[in-house]
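Please predict the structure of the following assembly.
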Amino acid sequence: MTSVRPAEIRVSEIFGPTIQGEGILIGLPTVFVRTGGCDYRCSWCDSLHAVDSEYREDWRAMSTEDVWQEVVRLSGGSPVMVTLSGGNPAIQPLGGLIDRGHEEGYRFALETQGSVARDWFAELDVLVLSPKPPSSGMETDWEAFDACLRLSKGRPQTVLKIVVLDEADYAYARAAAARYPHLPVYLQPCNHTPPPPDADDAPIDVEGILERMRWLVDKAAEDRWLEARVLPQLHVLIWGNKRGV
Amino acid sequence: MTSVRPAEIRVSEIFGPTIQGEGILIGLPTVFVRTGGCDYRCSWCDSLHAVDSEYREDWRAMSTEDVWQEVVRLSGGSPVMVTLSGGNPAIQPLGGLIDRGHEEGYRFALETQGSVARDWFAELDVLVLSPKPPSSGMETDWEAFDACLRLSKGRPQTVLKIVVLDEADYAYARAAAARYPHLPVYLQPCNHTPPPPDADDAPIDVEGILERMRWLVDKAAEDRWLEARVLPQLHVLIWGNKRGV
């Protein structure tokens, strides 16, 4: 990838401040910039409205400055953690937004599967690499994944976050953690009832998620895998599948 | 306090590994050492079985070595984060246990209200200071609290964790955060249906806790208090009021 930064960012939604519901920043107030478009199609994707091109009419092509002004408006000008999510935000030109926000004391976390590497990863404050396990139906390109780490130059705080649906996913998570022993690991029980992209606040099997959470906690403990954190999607427990919270 | 270390630790229960359900270590596998006895009587205490002297017959006076051997047994000899909780664990002689565990690569987090300062606080890896807000019925002795920080010598990772039931508690949390601007803050919606000390797995108002969680997230966002993390007691959502998980 070159460092060319086209003017426009494809945006699905910008909302917040609300708390980050997952992973290393769980509980932290953040403004989400969710970009449109993804090079993956995970079977249990919970953000299809930002992934499936059927919904691309809802996406807006925005300039870096327009995205920035919306972040400032939502945060009332108070520096906040900005979470760049998607879809896969790595396929958007976000380097300029990060630079702009840093000038004002904002911080930036990126959530990506690690399939597309960008030189601006090195400007991030937090890099959440979320390789997709077998149940997603995707296959991990570990060379692309390694390129993400290489281009980040060790600057952002970097972690692995892996969704786990079943035993095969758990084995995948174990292998990924072994491959990157220096990276903190966050395991996340899969939400197996993701919202359909055209329905806000769809029903959700909370008890099923909690059951998977308990299974995962027990499994990691039995394996003496005592470094990985196990965290559910807190926003799903608090707000269900509702969007924009 | 002197550095005299009496032989016996008053223990209410030792269990795990399970995940830490609260605060900075949320999601991390840990073995809990819950000590018996407390200098506080919080109105909504969720561990009365480790606080009220009515239950002291269930507490065991154990040597440091016996406590250590139980931690080793539960963790299968794999180094794990040990959480020292209570009651108020600061009134127990825990310095020797911390030294013993450190020799084997274990780490130690202490949860205390900050009413009793010990020189061994400086040996901790994580110090969670949890001053009690007005709804607890307790009054904070800030001089004792400052002594905890002083004796920790800035060595452990130190955070504030504050339970919030209502507006008055929120104002207290705001003031405490302003008093210690260098300490990360974790806000925790109060579990207003704590388990009675003699009943395992008592009913619990999950929806009420989630309602308070949503209120707290909104309130912090409206106030542009964007550095404090807001986290519920995850173990209560996952396992209810059940003990030993």
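The domain at 8-239 of chain A is CATH 3.20.20.70 (TIM Barrel). The first helix of chain A runs from residue 64 to 75.
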